[in-house]
Amino acid sequence: MYATQLVQLKQATATVTNLAQQLQYEIQNTTAFAGGAWQPNTDFLGGLGNVIATEQGVSYTLTNLPTEFSQLFPGYTAPAGVPAQTAQQTGQGINNTLATLGGTLQSLQGQAQNFAAENAELQQLASANSAATGRLQAIQIGNQIALLQTQQMQMLRQVMMNLTNATAVNGANQVSQQAQGRERLATFYGAPMSPVISAPSGTLGVVGGMP
Asked: What is the rounded CA–CA span in Å between residue 185 and residue 167?
């Protein structure tokens, strides 16, 4: 009889020990993070953008960006005596390139103006994360953060596409201006000019068919 009671007591003790261990695990799983609260960096981001303007440069943070840009880069106006076709070809390429570059800066300005709204959303998620009391709430907050990260990646792609677009238009304008210049020279001299031959790295190459 005593032996049976001793076995039952050992089993009950083991059960209580297991329950205590599980309770300890639950306490650990519900202990809040003590590393400090999340803080927005809106002022820091704004300061980084203002560095360019502080150095008297053209920054996307300028409140009068379109006006400032057009005053600094007024575009092409053909001087007197330039043929209408030449003026149109030259002016169109230059002015379109300037419009593209100015539009790129304005697009960046639009993204920068959204920093405050983004940080407000992050602040809301941080508060919800701190106040989460259940596993489902924590999972849903994590999903919201993942969606926000995906949105940020899309915005980053949009910035890269803007910069790539501006680079492509600027490069195309340079090539076009070179081609138009060669055409005008050929017309002036009355003979076609041989193309520029690219030289291997480290050599002077051949320009205009002359050694």
From this structure: 27
Average pLDDT over residues 32-47: 72
Residue 47 inside a domain? The answer is no
pLDDT digits (tens, 9 = 90+) for 120-168: 888 888 888 888 878 888 888 899 999 999 999 999 999 999 999 999 9
Q: Which of 90, 75, 92 is nearest to 179 (CA)?
A: 90
- Residue 192 φ/ψ region, left for φ over 0, alpha for ψ in the -120 to 50 degree band, beta for the rest: beta
- Specify which residues 207 forms β-bridges with: 210
Using CA atoms, how far apart are residues 42 and 117, in angstroms rounded to an integer? 10
Nearest to 45 by CA among 154, 118, 101: 118
Residue 56 included in any domain: no
| Structural domain boundaries enclosing 145 | 85-189
Distance CA 91, CA 75 (A): 8
φ, ψ for residue 197 (rounded to 5)? -95, 125
Domain for residue 124, yes or no? yes
* Total of domains in the chain: 1
For residues 132 and 141, give the distance between their C-alpha atoms in angstroms, rounded to a whole number.
Answer: 8
Q: What DSSP state is assigned to residue 73?
A: -
Residue 177 domain-assigned (yes or no):
yes
